[in-house]
């Protein structure tokens, strides 16, 4: 008879995650008895960890909050949820891009003001879409864009070809990306390197018909520069699921722009979050039981 | 030396269509000298046709306006633009469905009201989408839906399998379609058979999470019944690019519903219309020159 791995699921024993843990060979225990902690909460309230905890699974893709709070240590393995929500986020990115291109936001606001709406409609077909930070989300988004007739220009650090894309460029060639793309989807993590990647200079290099979609993190965009570019028609529009800060202030001028769409950080809706996460917790737990390498490990000092 | 076919392009000599005509072996002439008329106008103003005109190419997909105006006769061949705009309309249908599922319309209206928006977000992944009237638009829409992880239930008159769909049902089994699908895209022509296909009964049979997208014709939907179904939460939402009448009256209660998205008949935007149409005019003209069968012929008495 195999011994089951003692796993703590905190701060709430979510039904989907608990079922996945039990199915994958885990036994639900309190943190004081656990070898594994699945932490479904925020950095606030993260518990002091007993030394016996060998692996902590975090629920989010972006873990800068945990890093900044000093939660991560080097005494055990840490995993994030990068890639686990990729399909969901990719779907939201496509939805935002199409809403903008097809002028659905304008239709909602201006009702049947047909002539100006009609002439502003653009198509994805034949357009080049740059996916900046083409990891899991990029791989999920690419076939959706290709099915819509777009060309995909992936951008990652190495420039190693991204599955399914038409071309991959390294991030060292960003200047070229801005000049060569029609639209931009931001899917990169928030790091010093990606801070204000969209700024006055990149906005000026992008074409006037460009839509920028951000499903990554707010700090990738210099919102002040974005505001003026949107107001001046330097680009066609922006669709943001993330902002800096979140939410934007009630009097943030971005709210008033007709060519700016903002959704409240729902690309990965929390309503479905644990359901999405559960199979990945199970997969990693099976690997843990087997002594295999875990998926999506992170460390505090990694420049991810 | 081949004689060029005399073609009239009226009422405006659109540059894209004229270029396509000349490239395909046509010579631009006045209507009194023409064997072919490419009519880029509405039924109003349609000219008296000289007997020498053997073929008239109409610019729209739905031709009920021409039929009702008594324009079509049986003295020559008539073609419509069915299928020529399929990619464009399919893109708009997907955009409308995703806008609804991802709650982008609600985000635009309610700003960062995160909790209720977040919990209302749904995904295309794993959902069944019925395409009712699966012709050219359906064939174009199917790979877009499949790339998004949906299952496609095509519905046509014959039930003959539609390319790429997971299952095709004949329209005689509509009752079953309403019960088995998650979402509905209407892409059928407006005929007596499709009049008020969406009515109190079909709305009651559809699931509460259902989104209905109409990129076909307004009369397919009983808007009174739709209003009450949307208001009562019988279905989740409707996204209409076409209505009956068009536009809806300014005080039409549909405008006030938070779960109804209306775009002003722009699935096939007139801004790009002649550009989309041009290659098809060229293809049909090449066929005409070669004495081959034309694509997309129609007749007044056809129950299309």
UniProtKB/TrEMBL annotation, chains A, B:
Q: Does the keyword Nucleotidyltransferase apply?
A: no
Classify the source by domain of life. Answer: Bacteria
Recite the UniProt keywords alphabetically.
NAD, Oxidoreductase
Pfam short name (any one) = 2-Hacid_dh_C
Instruction: Determine if Magnesium is one of this entry's keywords.
Output: no
Q: Give every D-isomer specific 2-hydroxyacid dehydrogenase NAD-binding domain span.
A: 97-267
**One term of GO molecular function:** oxidoreductase activity
Q: What is this protein called?
A: Hydroxyacid dehydrogenase
Q: Which organism is it from?
A: Gordonia oryzae
């Amino acid at each position: 008879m195999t011994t089951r791995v003692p796993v703590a699921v905190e701060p709430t024993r979510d039904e989907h995650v608990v079922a996945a843990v039990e199915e994958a060979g885990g036994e639900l225990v309190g943190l004081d008895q656990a070898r594994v902690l699945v932490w479904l909460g925020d950095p606030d309230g993260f518990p002091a960890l007993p030394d016996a905890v060998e692996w902590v699974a975090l629920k989010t893709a972006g873990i800068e909050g945990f890093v900044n709070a000093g939660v991560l240590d080097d005494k055990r393995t840490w995993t994030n949820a990068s890639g686990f929500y990729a399909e969901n986020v990719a779907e939201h990115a496509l939805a935002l891009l199409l809403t903008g291109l097809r002028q659905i936001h304008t239709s909602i606001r201006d009702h049947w003001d047909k002539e100006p709406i009609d002439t502003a409609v653009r198509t994805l077909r034949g357009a080049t879409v740059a996916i900046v930070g083409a990891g899991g989300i990029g791989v999920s988004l690419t076939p959706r864009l290709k099915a819509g007739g777009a060309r995909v220009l992936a951008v990652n650090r190495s420039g190693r070809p991204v599955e399914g894309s038409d071309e991959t460029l390294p991030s060292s060639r960003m200047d070229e990306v801005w000049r060569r793309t029609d639209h931009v989807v931001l899917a990169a993590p928030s790091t010093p390197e990606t801070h204000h990647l969209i700024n006055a200079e990149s906005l000026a290099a992008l074409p006037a018909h460009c839509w920028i979609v951000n499903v990554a993190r707010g700090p990738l965009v210099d919102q002040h520069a974005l505001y003026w570019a949107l107001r001046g028609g330097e680009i066609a529009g922006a669709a943001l699921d993330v902002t800096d800060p979140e939410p934007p202030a009630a009097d943030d001028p971005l709210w008033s722009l007709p060519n700016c769409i903002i959704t409240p950080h729902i690309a990965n809706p929390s309503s479905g979050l644990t359901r999405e996460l559960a199979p990945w917790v199970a997969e990693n737990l099976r690997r843990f039981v087997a002594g295999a390498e875990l998926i999506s490990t992170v460390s505090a000092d990694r420049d991810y």
